[in-house]
Amino acid sequence: MSYALKDAKLFGCRQSMDLAKRIATAYGAELGQVNFSTFSDGEFQPSFEESIRGRRIFIIGSTQPSSDNLMEMLLMLDAAKRASARHITAVIPYFGWARQDRKDKPRVPIGAKMIAKVLETAGATRIITMDLHADQIQGFFEKPVDHLFASSLFVPHLKELALEDLTIASPDMGGSKRAYAYAKTLESDVVVCYKQRQKANVISHMELIGDVTGKNVVLVDDMVDTAGTLTKAADVMMERGAKSVRAICTHAILSGKAYERIENSQLEELIVTDSIPLRQESSKIKVLSCAGLFATVMKSVQQNESISDNFIM
């Protein structure tokens, strides 16, 4: 093992500890020791229990709500900065608060921009993340951002399924670019759902643009939250004559009645990554681990090598 590779140290945030262990195993290292002191009111304090002076360190943790997950990442970044780490890379498989990437009405924050600035202020010198909700979030950072795509996991899996009459679908207009990229790689047709919302997470109307008759449809999206859009889209497509409907979503937020909706839906399968730990098991949910992808990119970053070979699209 080269000195450069041994020089890096990996640490995991508590909310992503299982994924951090898998990444460390794929990387060929052990996770460093971090202890947490917790006060009676819920305040917590991380402490690195080994020297990181002059080292490159990777801190692994998704920042999905609650805000404690983000706060934990920030405190660990600050602790690493004050412990004189040489480079501090925040490895954030799921970048939370990313849906607030613009002002969509007056007097609201651009939360994703604020989070980017806070991460840098806390001490992050580099960000590694996957399937941001909006590509422009990369521009919110002054530090380098390695934006990975779960398509490098999903495309090989879809090819293994060898579905005949494959059609890629986007559950909304905003995801059409992603759907077209998958379709180009898989040489398949594309359909798009047009939806109108009453309010966040509540769909009032959905229409389908394209023909799914006799097709095996795969919906693609960056995240699944309440699963209302996916299950509604699956119902519409089956009503329009689809043979089957699957969905691939990078980040399995799965809040509210999501698990119940998925179990009762016409979705044949929901394929996700382990960027966020599942709250419960489901016979319809298949998890593909992103640990190998992150470990490979982290090694390349540590050794100052190109990471472009890790992108399918």
From TrEMBL:
Designated name of the protein: ribose-phosphate diphosphokinase
CDD domains named among the record's database cross-references: PRTases_typeI
Single GO MF annotation: kinase activity
Reactions mediated catalytically: D-ribose 5-phosphate + ATP = 5-phospho-alpha-D-ribose 1-diphosphate + AMP + H(+)
Protein EC: 2.7.6.1
Lineage: Bacteria, Pseudomonadati, Bacteroidota, Flavobacteriia, Flavobacteriales
GO cellular component, one term: ribose phosphate diphosphokinase complex
Keyword field: ATP-binding, Cytoplasm, Kinase, Magnesium, Metal-binding, Nucleotide biosynthesis, Nucleotide-binding, Transferase
Source species of the chain: Nonlabens tegetincola
